[in-house]
Amino acid sequence: MKILVVGANGQIGKHLVQSIQASGSHTARAMLRKQEQEADFKELGAETYIADLEGEIDEITQAADDVDAVVFTAGSGPKTGKDKTIMVDLDGAVKTIEAAKQAGVKRFVMISSFDTTRRAIQNAPDSFAPYVIAKHYADEHLRNAGLDYTMIHPGTLTNDAGTGKVHTGTAVDAADVPREDIANVILESLKNDASIGKEFKVIGGQTPIQDSLQQL
User: Is the entire prediction scored with pTM above 0.85?
Assistant: First the structure.
């Protein structure tokens, strides 16, 4: 399976590309904004493609040519303003969904926020509400796009080493989870067709990732 990782230079994206390449049976195509970001990914043996999420859909469509799945891991980051939240977390996500459709790619994995419900929007602090709103509408667009999607809602992300064990479900209290484990949840989801059409929350836990996904 060849997997386009959108946001490959982000923290989850880097872990995901490493996991894909280490699998021995799958290949990553890292979508990057700048050529100077390519070297680390080429060392892993991954393909690279330069495209800007703030550009035209055609750029992303070309990046998705001849892949089997698309993963959206991009994010504007906590230090950017509301404009970047709209441009990346909403518009970038929607354009990636539409690009996957144009490229004929059915399999799509979205890394969302932990809670993107209307209640979460109402309860979010003013500084965080624009992000939750952006993710809410991006998620809604994916649900209605006709793709074979999986939507992953991580808990509070940390840079701790992955444990290979998580807790997943639709009704889960917020807690920490290593980014490395989220990357491996993505890969296991792509390998497991039972995750198609599912959306679930992920926090650190005691169940091996593969087993946890089987229980969804």
Answer: yes
Does pLDDT of 184 surpass 90? yes
Catalytic residue status for 149: no
Q: What's the structural domain count of the chain? A: 1
Measured distance CA(60)–CA(57) in Å, rounded: 5
Angle CA(154)–CA(93)–CA(204) in degrees, nearest 5?
Answer: 5
153's enclosing H/E stretch is: strand 148-154
The whole-angstrom separation of Cα 57 and Cα 52 is: 9
d(CA 68, CA 70): 7
Write out the residue range of the structural domain in which residue 56 sits: 2-153
189 assigned to some structural domain = no
pLDDT in tens, 38-76: 999 999 999 999 999 999 999 999 999 999 999 999 987
